[in-house]
Amino acid sequence: MYKNLAAALAAACFFSPLFSQTRAALKTPNAEPVKAGFVYVSPITEAGWTRQHEEGRKAVEAALGAGVKTTFVENVPEGPDAERVIRDLAATGHKIIFTPSFGYMEPTLKVAKDFPEVKFESITGYKQAPNVATANARYYEGRYLAGIAAGRMSKTGVAGYVAGFPIPEVLQGINAFALGMRSVNPNAVVKVVWLDVWFDPPKEREGAMALFNEGADVLAFHTGSTAVMAAAQERGKMAVAYHSDMRRVGPDAQIVAVTHQWGDYYTARVRAVQAGTWKSGSVWGGVKDGMIRVGDFGSKVPSAVQQEVLARQKDIAAGKLHPFHAAQAVRDNEGREVIARGQTLSDAQILGMNWLAEGVQGKLAR
Predict the structure, then answer these.
(1) Are 91 and 239 in the same domain?
(2) Strand-pair category, 254-260 with 360-361
(3) Rounded alpha-carbon distances, angstroms, from residue 100 to 95, 308, 324, 326
(4) Is residue 366 a part of any domain in this protein?
(5) pLDDT, tens digit, 9 for 90 and up, residues 275-316
(6) Which of 82, 29, 55 is closest to 275 using CA atoms?
């Protein structure tokens, strides 16, 4: 996840053709299995950010069988510990190493210089090297669709958003969610709580409870655990699952899930190493690429709402709908026009986002 605006702007070089190229990589494995390493920033929990990357690792094993041998190390803090773990994997024969956390970017680059024959995949990073590629997903596409579901399901028209840090990636999600919600309820309001942390279940729960106490009846979140969903289940409210399907945690609370699908990308990249066709580059994939999916509706969501959301998902995949296209001028929550009527934000503008949309209650440091 991007930690600053400069990182987001630099990441504007993300593109999807590399993903397409790696999908087509030769599928015949070498005699020796490729050793692939994965480094996780938190424990492997039942659902959440790390869980989805673990599912991606399992998908690689399922697809490549004896052609791959995977290793993972979980709960590795960003910083010196990350460099040590990444270096150990590189030194023990791993030919490709996936590092899915923004704070792993610099340690990955540092280790990569010392192991030029090893390939590295910096997930949510933005700096490439000859043996370091970057990849991320267009999370905002799923957020817009979730906003439609929330707008249809909310009885109060007030949603809450438990957010980690006020960085472009998070702002994209908040704004897309608000625009999706207001596309079906023009008077909808989204209240934001900033936590300044990605993974802290007690703090995530506290933020959720505060938003419920302020009148929200549906929550979205950009944090790493299932705590917000659990809080919604406890309070008899609703929530949008993020990263993973969380119906086991919130069987009555979940209305829909925005899930991240890493298996195809990871498998394609390992296959490219097998085939000797791996190249550095950048991918920023979304619904069209199968990296973002909205579904896993809760039992209380009417069929009509489900079909509406799925239809809009198909529209995004087909290029007929863009969350940041303005049929009417879009203003921020301070009244400034941020998307002119008939215009669509460019990738660079999306990646450098530093405003909150009209209807979002919150402020950003200027």
Answers:
(1) no
(2) unpaired
(3) 16, 32, 26, 33
(4) no
(5) 999 999 999 999 999 999 999 999 999 999 999 999 999 999
(6) 29
Q: Model-level pTM?
A: 0.85
Domain interval for residue 210: 139-260+292-361
Same domain assignment for residues 87 and 30 = yes
**How is residue 10 written in tokens?**
């630099």
pLDDT (tens digit, 9 = 90+) per residue, 79-103?
899 999 999 999 999 999 999 998 8
Q: Distance between CA 65 and CA 139 in Å, rounded?
A: 30
Q: Is residue 64 part of a domain?
A: yes
C-alpha dist (Å) from residue 354 to 13, 135, 175, 190: 18, 22, 10, 17
For Cα atoms 291, 168, 328, give the angle at the middle one, nearest 5 degrees: 85
- Alpha carbon distance 23, 291 (integer Å): 13
What gap in Å lies between CA 337 and CA 289, rounded to an integer? 31
Distance CA 174, CA 169 (A): 9
CATH of the domain at 150: 3.40.50.2300
